[in-house]
Each structure stands twice: as structure tokens, then as C-alpha cells.
Amino acid sequence: MGKVVFLYRSLAYRNAAADxxxxxxxxxxxxxRSAALRYARALRDLAQTEAxxxxxxxxxxxxxxxxxxxxxx
Length: 73
Known about the structure:
It is a single chain. With 73 residues, the chain is an all-alpha fold. The chain has a domain at 8-56. It is 84% helix and 0% strand.
């Protein structure tokens, strides 16, 4: 159950960051655009922090495969 909650929350943060980033790119340069970009960046960082706190790193599958290759040598 915990994995499902983590996945849902992490994906929600990432999707919200992507939506805000798309909207920010459409805005003219200025304070509103900068604020939206900072907000999107903060949401992305929050998703990464959540992954770190849960002990799940985004690069986990790659690092495990590297360890298996290194162990087999």
C-alpha cells in the first residue's frame, strides 16, 4: 500500500510541475513567469525529495543493474 501512495504522490507532484511549466512558458517574460517557473521547480524538487525520503531513488533500476554487472565480473 505504501508503494502505491508514494507512486501516486510523486507522480502528482511531477505532473503538476509539468503543467505549471507549460503554462509558464506561454506567459510573457516578467514577474508572473518567473514565479511560475520557481513554483514548477519547487514541485519537481519536492517530488525528488519525496523519493529520497521514501528510499526510492529515480536512478535505482540503473544502479542495481550496474551492481549486478559488476558482481558478475
